[in-house]
Design brief:
Blueprint: H1 22-26, E1 30-35, H2 40-51, E2 56-62, H3 67-77, E3 81-84, H4 87-96, E4 104-107, H5 108-116, E5 123-126, H6 134-142, E6 146-149, H7 153-169, E7 172-175, H8 178-187, E8 194-201, H9 211-214, H10 219-222, H11 232-240, H12 242-255, E9 262-266, E10 272-278, E11 283-287, H13 292-300, H14 315-318, H15 333-343, H16 347-363, H17 371-384, H18 406-449
Parallel strand pairs: 1-2, 1-5, 2-3, 3-4, 5-6, 6-7, 8-9
Antiparallel strand pairs: 8-10, 10-11
């Protein structure tokens, strides 16, 4: 099925990894570990498994703190391994599990990494939210897994590193994000004739709003996405359009194309999930019902295509389709993401950490909606002032691809990746601290000028 794979080797498309090995394609049921099974992607993935239960064997599930939901999932699927954030969550989980079912409970970041590297699980769904998902993605890549990647932050923070690890271990990346899954399908079997990639965006709940109108929106309003049912963080990212900015970075790393050939169009109906423009000016679009089960199933079942209980798209009743250029003045987050991609030097790490910190502050009522891009911009500018030049934050790996002693080579690769990850995490922590200081300074300044 290699002919179904997007082009590799450039110059038009240089996909992040090769296709899965033949034995993976032929093995059914497939052993599966899900990182982040209690979130929206994880729940949708288990809904896919309900429809295709004979095709999968659940070996591991994980969550951060929603142990009640994890316990219900564990009772249903009976995996031998579970993973949670800390000892308190593990203790609570043990209380909730029935007698006679005693899975091994793994704890913390190391636990997630061990779950991602389970020898029995050739397939890993990386669906943890935010920067916390990077450790599991890297562990799965180091173990040579087929990674169904829903955690876009893994590529935003370390896309080049993931690409290099895949080249050394033979790991595969299949994109779960609906937009990147659409591009993947449109690019199947194609390579050098590609002109541009076009990501579609719903525009979120505030499409068409001016900056003045956005000044006083509430978290409750921002969480009401018109088309998709998603978790809180990604819903706010959609409202600010940072989600699309992160997807521009994701497309850059996934498909190996210059940023100038990655476009964004606002498409309120969310029926065209993305498009590919060919060299002759024609375009290929992937369309479907706005349901994440389709993209998830495409990855989990690849290269098969099978029904998973999603109603087909009815073009007769769908109504007209419309497309608009994004309003980057009211929604500057896409421009901030492009700046991070252009200037490098760790700015993508700063962008993501600042966004996560600002979204948390907004949801807690500690900053306004327009403060999200303001805080990100300020954090990026503070970091950029320290940069010696446009250098990659994670330098190329030194560990060779095929050492004389594979065991020693594997250990050296893991140690090098761990060092780079610690560098990423240090900048992430520092940026979050900077954002909180900026937010406090802004709140203090506002209090000084307030007549009340």
């Amino acid at each position: 099925m290699a002919e179904l794979w997007p082009g590799q080797g450039g110059p038009a498309i240089d996909y992040i990894s090769g296709p899965p090995p033949e034995d993976w394609r032929q093995t059914w049921p497939r052993g599966l570990a899900i990182l982040g099974s209690t979130g929206s992607i994880g729940q949708n993935a288990l809904a896919v498994l309900e429809a295709r239960e004979e095709d999968f064997r659940v070996l591991g599930l994980s969550c951060a703190r929603n142990v009640e939901r994890l316990a219900r999932q564990a009772v249903r699927w009976q995996p031998p391994f579970l993973a949670v954030l800390d000892e308190a969550a593990a203790a609570r989980l043990k209380e909730l599990l029935p007698a006679g079912y005693s899975p091994r409970i793994l704890i913390g970041r190391e636990g997630y990494a061990r779950l991602a590297a389970l020898p029995q699980a050739a397939t890993v769904l990386s669906a943890q939210v935010g920067a916390a998902g990077l450790a599991g993605t890297l562990a799965a890549a180091l173990a040579g897994k087929v990674i169904c990647l829903a955690n876009k932050e893994s590529l935003v923070l370390a896309g080049g590193l993931v690409r290099e690890i895949c080249a050394r271990t033979g790991a595969t990346v299949l994109p779960v994000d609906s937009e990147h899954n659409a591009l993947f399908q449109c690019l199947a079997g194609r390579g050098q004739e590609i002109k541009s990639l076009i990501l579609t965006a719903s525009g979120g709940p505030f499409r068409g709003k001016s900056r003045e109108e956005l000044r006083h929106v509430t978290p409750e309003q921002a969480l009401k996405h018109p088309n998709w049912r998603m978790g809180a963080k990604i819903s706010i990212d959609s409202a600010s359009m940072m989600n699309k900015g992160l997807e521009v970075l994701e497309a850059f790393h996934l498909y190996g194309v210059p940023a100038g050939r990655i476009r964004v169009l606002v498409h309120p109906q969310s029926l065209v999930h993305s498009l590919v423009e060919l060299a002759d000016g024609s375009q290929l679009a992937q369309m479907g019902t706005a349901d994440m089960r389709l993209a998830i199933a495409h990855c989990l079942l690849w290269p098969r295509c099978a029904p998973v209980g999603v109603a087909p798209l009815n073009l007769v009743t769908a109504g007209p389709l419309s497309f608009y250029e994004p309003d980057t003045k009211s929604f500057p987050c896409i421009s901030l993401a492009r700046r991070a991609l252009a200037e490098r030097g760790g700015l993508s790490v700063v962008l993501n950490a600042a966004n996560e910190a600002a979204v948390e502050l907004f949801l807690a009522g500690r900053c306004g909606f327009l403060d999200i891009p303001r805080l990100i911009d300020a954090a990026m500018s503070a970091h950029a002032a320290t940069l010696p030049g446009h250098q990659p934050f994670c330098p190329p790996l030194r560990s060779v691809a095929a050492p004389p002693d594979p065991a020693c080579g594997s250990l050296a690769l893991e140690q090098e990746v761990r060092m780079l990850m610690e560098r990423i995490e240090a900048l992430d922590r520092h940026t979050r601290h900077v954002v909180h200081e900026l937010a406090q300074a802004g709140a203090a300044a506002e209090a000084r000028v307030s007549p009340h």
